[in-house]
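Section 4.2 – Deliverable D4.2 (structural model, holo form)

The reporting period included a commitment to supply a predicted holo structure for the target in complex with guanosine-5'-monophosphate. Inputs used:
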Amino acid sequence: MDCVFCKIMNGEIPSEKLYENDEMFIIRDIDPKAAKHYLMIPKRHYKYLSEMTIDDSAALARSLGKIPELSEKLGLQNGYRLVINQGDDAGQTVPHLHVHILAGQPLDFPDLRK
Ligand code: 5GP
Ligand code: ZN
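Output (structure tokens):
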């Protein structure tokens, strides 16, 4: 599978896993867009939310529920933002579903119409 996140998952591309369980892992984004920028990556490869099986959606819900438990370890105590880019308009570049976790500073929320 020619997918950067599958390669990281398999250890073909080295990356520090800050957290890992049997359903997902969390790494630092290589090109951070905030003081703290992590990626939470489900282990099963799929691109779109629309492709999720019932098991995938339950796994994603459990994975989201883990984030507050990791608040101290990841430095999220002052708040954080989750982003899932889907498709071209959102600028999705990696075709393996992932949740951006942005934190560590006040997060601007620009009016993108301007
Ligand atoms: P997307 O634009 O698909 O929502 O986000 C993909 C993210 O993956 C980008 O923020 C990009 O910086 C990150 N990324 C791409 N390749 C790598 C990599 O090899 N390692 C890590 N840690 N992040 C990556
Ligand atoms: Zn993948």
